[in-house]
Design goal:
The chain has 184 residues and is α/β, with parallel strands linked by helices. It has 4 helices and 9 strands.
Length: 184
């Protein structure tokens, strides 16, 4: 009977120790989650100048880095990207709130770089066209290269304050699971 009591006390002590260690691990994991770095957009950093580019919108209008206005929002989406499809409706609403196409550029990146390449690129272009100047590009296209984008979706807010060359004012970090260029 004494052995049973000793065994019961030993098991209770082990269970208490296990519970304390588990709670300590959970507390550390919870604290670490907030310290984890955000996923990089793969683009140029805040404060960097936007590279030069010359291209045409899907409606045929020419566009260069000089057409970027102060506070302009430039977003990059790609076909075959689940996070891009998820982000698209929220982006359209945000673009609408910014006040129209003059302030917003949306780049739809696809392997062939044409707006009618796939049903998905047609759908993206159709959703974006009312609220943004839409560019259709290959992964190495002029605007995509000027912003250094390698992961999608990515967004940049541009500053032209003081009449200087456009610089990146803010970068929206690509979502976890974002699709890198060339990903299937």
């Amino acid at each position: 009977m004494v052995y049973l009591a000793v065994a019961l006390v030993a098991v209770a002590a082990l269970c208490t120790l296990d519970l304390m260690l588990t709670l300590a691990v959970l507390r550390r994991l919870r604290d670490r989650r907030y310290d984890a770095p955000a996923v990089d957009s793969g683009g140029i950093p805040v404060g960097a100048a936007v590279g030069s580019f010359t291209t045409r919108c899907t409606d045929g209008t020419p566009i260069t880095e000089g057409d970027l206005t102060d506070g302009a929002l430039v977003a990059f989406f790609t076909t075959g990207c689940a996070p891009c499809r998820t982000e698209l409706p929220a982006f359209v609403e945000e673009a609408r709130a910014l006040g129209g196409r003059r302030q917003v550029i949306a780049v739809v990146v696809s392997p062939g770089g044409t707006p009618d390449e796939t049903a998905e690129s047609v759908s993206m272009t159709r959703h974006l066209a009312p609220v943004a100047r839409v560019l259709a590009e290959r992964p190495d296209g002029p605007c995509t290269s000027a912003f250094g984008v390698t992961a999608f979706p990515s967004r940049f807010t541009v500053s032209t304050e003081g009449g200087t060359a456009p610089t990146v004012l803010a970068v929206w970090k690509a979502a976890l699971g974002a699709s890198p260029v060339g990903a299937p």
